[in-house]
Amino acid sequence: MNLPLLDLLIILAYVLLTLVIGFWIANRASKDINSYFLGGNKLSWWQLGLSNASGMFDISGTMWMVYLLFVYGVTSVYVPWLWPVFNQIFLMIFLSAWLRRSGVMTGAEWINFRFGDGTGARLSHFIVVLFALVNVIGFIAYGFIGIGKFAAVFMPWQLSADPHLNDVFYGLLITLVTTVYVVKGGMFSVVFTEVMQFIIMTIACIAVGIIAMQTVSPDMLKNLVPEGWSQLWLGGEFHLDWSKKLAEANNKITSDGYSPFAIFFMLLLFKGILQSMAGPQPTYDMQRVLSAKSPKEAAKMSGFVSLVLLFPRYMLITGLAVLALHFFTDDLNAMGDKIDFEQILPMVLAGDIIPSGLLGLLIAGLLAAFMSTFAATVNAAPAYVINDIYKRYINPNAEAKTYVKMSYLVSVIFVILGVAIGFYIPSLNQIIGWIVSALYGGYTAANLLKWYWWRFNGFGYFWGMVTGFVIAFPLIFTDISPLHAFPFMFIACVVASVVGSLLTKPDDMQVLKNFYIKVRPWGFWAPVLAEVQKDYPDIKANPNFSRDAINVLVGVIWQTSLTAAPIFMVIQYWQEFATPS
Question: Which CATH architecture has domain 5-426?
Fold first, then answer.
């Protein structure tokens, strides 16, 4: 596709503006490592909220969600529970405040806050750093795959007859540009550019949704999709029969393994609740919570994410899916078994449907989405390597500038590693499934227990995480669904965590008392509370479990409604829009 000059100028102007902002605030970011990784804890909750929303607005995830809505219809709103998307509700209600009260810089540093500095804590520190870095590499590969597939459709040079090689070239090119600004600017660069990116993306989302509403009427849509496509709940099985419309969609549903739907839904809910209660993974989500000015602002930031993110994002997703159904079903049928549903998004943008000018803005917005997610992911890597390895074990007394310069180097190394992995993984669905179900599945048990059980110690954490790693990595090379394996993985990790804790001594009581006084969690903390009350008789047990549980239930329903509402609005199902059901 040859983009019109106006659209090329808009995209170029955006990329240049992003780089200018990154370098402009680089001096502010490079004062010390607290400024580089946490923005000096001077960023407002709404800035962090918009940044977090923009960081979740990634192009790879958007391509994946467009395919999900296209194939599975409105019921696809549940599939992102794989991440789980409703973890922001748990963070808003209680976990962001608990986490921010620690006052630490990274998830690995939090481990020392929770377990102390004994052998078990050092082992736990090592394993959580390893998890965080593997996670960063996985998400860099995920972003690299998505941006390559996206950009190759629009860029004017096709260097090879092999589409995969073109994807790789453009993935490398855009990754290089993004790496320059995030490495230079740290968290300040990430947040300030993401606020700008979110504004651009929101304008583009609303515009695409309106175009779809003006182009495809509800009656037209009914003729394009199988019966049940517009229902929010399909019952025990996926009853979508694409055989008369797009036969390969049936094969895709079968290969994805999301049916029987009732079992799939319960797995999503079970896994999502447990992973949400475990707290955020030690990546950009956690970094933004730790960057907040206070525990209260951290909670407000997490709630703001769902409020501002879901509606515009799903206007875009729905608009693109509906336009693809209307204009490209025949083209997709013609691809036969070579069909790639992840190409639906760039196919619509390349189809002369979006007016010039708006097209450039939309592509710039999607590039912004990639850059924001990629930037936030890359910024997490040096936080662990420099703060938790280099500063702690190698050079604890270096000048602040030295740590920042080392962070530049670490960021570049991890980008190279992630891109190298991305060369060998052709499918977004494949890497998403492994990260959110296998890798995160192995993380869940140990990180759940650390908040709620006083007797859980550093050794238990280490063995629970090791068990998760041992089970997760082989799943890359098998046909076993990581989601279906999750319950068995979780049970194995719980057993390893509990046995590892009970066969070793409890953590130092002074460490546990300090943790309890600062964080004030609810759960099984009675022995620690009794010790605390000897010195501070006025401290009482946290009484808010019932309140938090009810608020979480309300929040999950609210968030799911916020997801479904823009879908029903764009497809003009006004009764369902008013009361999603």
Answer: Up-down Bundle (1.20)
